[in-house]
Structure formats: C-alpha cells, structure tokens
What we know:
CATH architecture of the largest domain: Up-down Bundle
Distance between the termini: 39 Å
Mean pLDDT: 88
Helix content: 40-55%
Shape: globular
Number of helices: 3
Order of helices and strands: HHEEEH
Number of strands: 3
Structural class: alpha+beta
Largest sheet: 3 strands, antiparallel
Amino acid sequence: xxxxxxxxxxxxxxxxxxxxxxxxxxxxxxxxxxxxxxxxxxxxxxxxxxxxxxxxxxxxxxxxxxxxxxxxxxxxxxxxxxxxxxxxxxxxxxxxxxxxxxxxxxxxxx
Length: 110
C-alpha cells in the first residue's frame, strides 16, 4: 500500500479559502434558496475532508448536511447535567456537548 504524501501548504491555504467562501455563500443563500445552501455546505465539508482541514462540528448538521445557524434552523438548549444540546430544525438531529467555564470561554472566542 502506498503512503500518501502531505499536501503542500499553498494547496491547503487555497482549500481553506474555498471552504470559507462556500460557507459564506451557504449563509447568504439559506433564506432564498435552501437547497443551494445545502449543496454549498456539502461541498465545503467535502473539500475540508479531502484536504484535512478543520470545520467546527456545530457548523454543519451531520445528518442532513445543512448549514446550522442559531435562531434560524438550530435550537440551542442547556440542561441540568451541564450539557449544551444543539437541535437541527430540519431533521431533528441532536448533538450534546458538556460544558464548563473553560469551554464557554473557548466558544465565545471562536
């Protein structure tokens, strides 16, 4: 089996720019054309996966693939077990993450 080589930095930077552009286009199109927005977010996720780039897990729904925007198509709830619950309005997929003061500070910075 062949060992894959690391991608050059300039290729990764181009891919990062492309994913950022696709996510911003998806955010613009979410109200006018939701299907196009979904396609943009799927392309961004595919590009990030191919070039081993990081995308925040809370940005794109893992089940239906749409861009998640709190207040429009994402509910954010907390419960007594110190968990943040993200609920996709399109498909009902839930994501749970624990929180403490440190994680709340990190989320506010990003």
